[in-house]
Prior knowledge:
Layout: H1 3-37, H2 40-64, H3 68-99, H4 107-134, H5 137-166, H6 171-192
Helix pairs in contact: 1-2, 1-4, 2-3, 2-5, 2-6, 3-5, 3-6, 4-5, 5-6
Amino acid sequence: MTDPAMKLRRSGIALEIVTLGWNVVGVVLLAILAYQSASVALLGFGLDSLIEIGASTVVIWELTDTSPSRQRVALRLIGWAFILLALYLLVQAVMALVLGHHATPLIGGITWTGATALAMFTLAWGKWVVGKRLDNPALLTEGRVTLIDGILATSVLLGILLNYTFGWWWADPVAGLIIVFYAAREAIHIFRA
């Protein structure tokens, strides 16, 4: 392997380690916030962070010894994680809407989701640049997962803010449904490729 390719792989691994660390902290924090606020959106975002942890781990594994078979396994694992997330959140969000479940918006949820959106958009851009230069489909796909994480953080933030500002209780489960849509779309994209 050439020296520039090795440097790019190290950069990809570093981006994944930062993503992994952010999401490990996020899973713990989101579990606490979701419990305190009874928020479907925060719960879904926490589960999405678990998927991001798994996806980052899979891509780090794949980058240590890239091969077509490792890339296929990595992509399938990420795809199945998205399918499970979409199914779970669909049930949770629909039940919250049907039962009229009211989450309690918290400043902690607003702060964390806002910071996460900024971090994930930055990390996704870095993964896209490195993934393109390496021509690595697993890193590019996981970069899309990170981009979606940023989009989801933004939608969850919007749902919490609408509930906090206007009392629109339904904005929280609707934000959860947005996560379902993106998770299903990403899974379809992975399995079609």
